[in-house]
């Protein structure tokens, strides 16, 4: 199940000239933009643009990047390596928070070259730390670890305990991601003790979340629960609704893993409220998926389906395709438990298609990353050369180190290619499983075709024979006058049975149908009803704005068709109408189907509901919608079906 870790506690070494006065974010940005409009020198503009880049990152990364690019152009004209290095560092931060890690790495590397020129060791190793964060977010744990250890050595030697603590925390997170839980626990507990001694409650809570994740993965559930609750207490004291929400989700995941579904639900619902309050749509969807898992374990499949469908909607809005694929896979057994095999097959197929797409994208991304990393290694080589020029002019040593670096690059490329090959083999295995699922679905479809053909050829033929035999018996003189009306009744019933059998075969063979096909079926039914019932006017109206090509699962189509049939048959049987109108329209994202007559009407409280009304409401519920019946004695009846348009 999903839980919140997503680099919890990864810290950046922030090097910028921050303006420390008490203003809200909006007031601060407005003030900076006013100062920018009044700035008279290039240096003053560069300093303000640096601040704007920094403070816009949590508000709008795209705006921050625009200011950062403008600052670099101005800083280049100043011939000041320190200011230009700061401009590149600010832009690297904006790109990293936006998730464009290749651009982030390029800008931090440019900043590092300039900071080696200025000789500012604190800023040099701060930038090395930030490069480590970029590598960590790009899942290049080896490169991230190399940068962190280099920076950690400097900050420990210089006595900068706070920055050393941030780096240790990041190293602990790397061990957690690599599932080296004992080592991760050892490092993060040391970090937690330091932060507790410093009264750094907020960062302590972030570290506790990671420690809780370690205990959960080690199945030490009591320790995990205690650690999560300690973190939650701090976030609540800090009035941090966002991290409180994610901590509730971690607790819900923990309780689901222990089979404590009801407790998981009560905790997850609290997280859902907070995620909605702060507008964290992605985390809101994660909590919904946890709730769906809890209700599934409790065998409350309608409720589980409701939360899975909502989570799917939110993941789609966030373009979170990996989470979306997981939801599709988990939805299939829910629909199977609900007795809806067509929907189960639909989500299995949707999972296979999306998983195939993600696999292809991952392979393409790995290929482009490999090329980008090769270019990055070339950039690293340039940085190394500059370091050597500044520290040592011994050309013999310089040549040896360059050769070693080239060999390292070649080795790294070979290693990366092998990793890519291994991942491709793993994805090929997943594809093989997906193809097996598709083959199973194809076999199910073949069986369905065989069943429908058997219904048509055998049972349909037998019913037709019965009709023929009844028609012949009507002319048997000894009893024809006495039993003709009974023969007619049996023949009509058998004809109706054949019609319904054909409708069922049509739905089974279709799999998916368009609204246009369903509309034609309803229209044909109304025409037949008009022919067989003289004196009643039947009308069928469809809103022109409704897309005729949108698809329905065949089982949904036959359910709608049966509701329309049942409503019309009830009207003909009990209401004695002169006009029946069937209309279809779209209201927001709902499909509305109305069957209205001008018959005698009835008071629902004064009648005993029969199977017809019960069946219509049951069908509406299975469609995920609802059925409304409005009637008044002497003024007709209106039956309205409302269902979500998927």
TrEMBL record:
<keyword id="KW-0479">Metal-binding</keyword>
<dbReference type="GO" id="GO:0000155">
    <property type="term" value="F:phosphorelay sensor kinase activity"/>
</dbReference>
<dbReference type="Pfam" id="PF13424">
    <property type="entry name" value="TPR_12"/>
</dbReference>
<dbReference type="GO" id="GO:0005737">
    <property type="term" value="C:cytoplasm"/>
</dbReference>
<keyword id="KW-0004">4Fe-4S</keyword>
<dbReference type="GO" id="GO:0046872">
    <property type="term" value="F:metal ion binding"/>
</dbReference>
<dbReference type="Pfam" id="PF02518">
    <property type="entry name" value="HATPase_c"/>
</dbReference>
<keyword id="KW-0597">Phosphoprotein</keyword>
<keyword id="KW-0408">Iron</keyword>
<keyword id="KW-0732">Signal</keyword>
<keyword id="KW-0808">Transferase</keyword>
<dbReference type="InterPro" id="IPR011712">
    <property type="entry name" value="Sig_transdc_His_kin_sub3_dim/P"/>
</dbReference>
<dbReference type="InterPro" id="IPR019734">
    <property type="entry name" value="TPR_rpt"/>
</dbReference>
<comment type="function">
    <text>Member of the two-component regulatory system NreB/NreC involved in the control of dissimilatory nitrate/nitrite reduction in response to oxygen. NreB functions as a direct oxygen sensor histidine kinase which is autophosphorylated, in the absence of oxygen, probably at the conserved histidine residue, and transfers its phosphate group probably to a conserved aspartate residue of NreC. NreB/NreC activates the expression of the nitrate (narGHJI) and nitrite (nir) reductase operons, as well as the putative nitrate transporter gene narT.</text>
</comment>
<keyword id="KW-0802">TPR repeat</keyword>
<dbReference type="InterPro" id="IPR011990">
    <property type="entry name" value="TPR-like_helical_dom_sf"/>
</dbReference>
<keyword id="KW-0812">Transmembrane</keyword>
<dbReference type="InterPro" id="IPR004358">
    <property type="entry name" value="Sig_transdc_His_kin-like_C"/>
</dbReference>
<keyword id="KW-0411">Iron-sulfur</keyword>
<dbReference type="Pfam" id="PF07730">
    <property type="entry name" value="HisKA_3"/>
</dbReference>
<feature type="transmembrane region" description="Helical">
    <location>
        <begin position="395"/>
        <end position="415"/>
    </location>
</feature>
<keyword id="KW-0418">Kinase</keyword>
<dbReference type="InterPro" id="IPR003594">
    <property type="entry name" value="HATPase_dom"/>
</dbReference>
<keyword id="KW-0067">ATP-binding</keyword>
<dbReference type="GO" id="GO:0005524">
    <property type="term" value="F:ATP binding"/>
</dbReference>
<feature type="repeat" description="TPR">
    <location>
        <begin position="85"/>
        <end position="118"/>
    </location>
</feature>
<dbReference type="GO" id="GO:0016020">
    <property type="term" value="C:membrane"/>
</dbReference>
<keyword id="KW-0902">Two-component regulatory system</keyword>
<dbReference type="GO" id="GO:0051539">
    <property type="term" value="F:4 iron, 4 sulfur cluster binding"/>
</dbReference>
<keyword id="KW-1133">Transmembrane helix</keyword>
<keyword id="KW-0963">Cytoplasm</keyword>
<keyword id="KW-0547">Nucleotide-binding</keyword>
<feature type="domain" description="Histidine kinase">
    <location>
        <begin position="454"/>
        <end position="646"/>
    </location>
</feature>
<dbReference type="InterPro" id="IPR005467">
    <property type="entry name" value="His_kinase_dom"/>
</dbReference>
<dbReference type="Pfam" id="PF13374">
    <property type="entry name" value="TPR_10"/>
</dbReference>
<keyword id="KW-0472">Membrane</keyword>
<feature type="repeat" description="TPR">
    <location>
        <begin position="205"/>
        <end position="238"/>
    </location>
</feature>
<dbReference type="InterPro" id="IPR036890">
    <property type="entry name" value="HATPase_C_sf"/>
</dbReference>
<dbReference type="InterPro" id="IPR050482">
    <property type="entry name" value="Sensor_HK_TwoCompSys"/>
</dbReference>
<dbReference type="GO" id="GO:0046983">
    <property type="term" value="F:protein dimerization activity"/>
</dbReference>
<feature type="signal peptide">
    <location>
        <begin position="1"/>
        <end position="22"/>
    </location>
</feature>
<protein>
    <recommendedName>
        <fullName>Oxygen sensor histidine kinase NreB</fullName>
        <ecNumber>2.7.13.3</ecNumber>
    </recommendedName>
</protein>
